[in-house]
Amino acid sequence: MTERPSAGSFRTFVSTHRGAVEDALLGLLPDKSAQPARLHEAMHYAMFPGGKRLRPMLTLLGCAATGGALQAAMRPGAALECLHTYSLVHDDLPCMDNDDLRRGRPTCHKVYGDSLALLAGDALLTVAFEGVAAAGGPAVQALAKAAGSIGMVGGQVEDLAAEGDGAAHTIERLRWIHDHKTGALITASLLVGAHAGAGGEDPVLEEVPEEVLGLLRRYGDRLGRAFQIADDCLDMTGSAAELGKNPGVDLAAGKLTWPALVGLEKSQEAATALAEEAAGLAGQVVSAAAEWRSVARSSLDGAAKLLQDVAIYTVERRT
Ligand code: GRG
């Protein structure tokens, strides 16, 4: 009998690998005391102790699910977390969402001021590209596309435009915003992992076949949508202690969200359906990877289970 997906094995995966991810992050960032020390302090403040570290974990899973060695994905995974953290620092600024709480602490700009927080974000974005270079050219391209104007930044622009623009609030528009603002980086995390693991010692030697990348994109697309709908729901149902950020801000700002459009219950159902769809694609991802690698499909069963379980985790989480 096939085991039902549950978030359990992913949580164990996170506790097993979190230490190595933190080490990779420390290895990628300049030392806190390096000049200019105030800037590096602000970068470290934003990065540590950090949040769930979902994106680097997805980079490790993208690598494992396509038959790569996890070690190859550590530094690129750290790069994804730096880029994600830059987006949070900028998102919290007064000119964006104007938040004062993030990851259970005052936001970066509340402690270091707006200018330094802006620059710390810039520097985190830049160092991310240093880190992802270890995974080769296709990984750099995947990250650049996902993070820029046709990805996350473009999604943020449309998200801001939709605030207080209620007449044009539709599910199609919201899906577009979610796919760009959140989903693009989630999918890129998986793709970068696959690229990182592709060539063993020399990641630029072998290219990941388009079939494998396409399946990872389909999986990541569902995962990203499920994750952001769950995030919208948590904004309504979570507490500041659970979320590490202020709840209820989307509603107060008149943001375009799933619960605002279809209600909380239907949103939770939609998130679960997408997570299950993603989980259903896990087997196809690893089968295609096993064929490409000419390895037994069963050698990737553990990774397939993790892909299923992280999908369930994204909608079951309370943080
Ligand atoms: C370029 C000025 C400038 C700003 C860019 C790109 C951008 C601002 C913002 C990105 C949009 C954004 C913050 C999307 C939200 C994605 C999201 C749900 C983040 C929360 O992710 P979690 O829950 O957080 O994984 P932790 O703290 O656990 O890592």
- The assigned structural class equals mainly alpha
- Bound heterogens, unique: geranylgeranyl diphosphate
Any idea what the CATH superfamily is called? Answer: Farnesyl Diphosphate Synthase
User: Outline, from the CA principal axes?
Assistant: globular
Strand order of the largest sheet: 1-2
Low-confidence stretches: none
Mean pLDDT: 94
Radius of gyration, in angstroms, nearest whole number? 19 Å
Helix content: over 70%
Note the beta-strand portion: under 5%
- At the first level of CATH, the class is Mainly Alpha
Please count the helical segments: 15
Please give the number of β-strands.
2
Q: Terminal Cα separation, in Å?
A: 32 Å
Write down the domain tally. 1
- Quaternary structure type: single chain
Largest sheet: 2 strands, antiparallel
Provide an overview of this structure.
This protein has a two-stranded antiparallel ribbon with strand order 1-2. The chain has a single domain, classed as Farnesyl Diphosphate Synthase (Orthogonal Bundle). Helix content is 71%, strand content 1%. It has helices at residues 8-28, 37-47, 54-65, 71-92, 108-112, 114-132, 137-147, 152-162, 171-198, 210-237, 240-243, 249-252, 258-262, 264-293, 301-316; strands at residues 101-102, 105-106. The chain is an all-alpha fold and 319 residues long. The mean pLDDT is 94. Geranylgeranyl diphosphate binds next to α4, α8, α9 and α10.
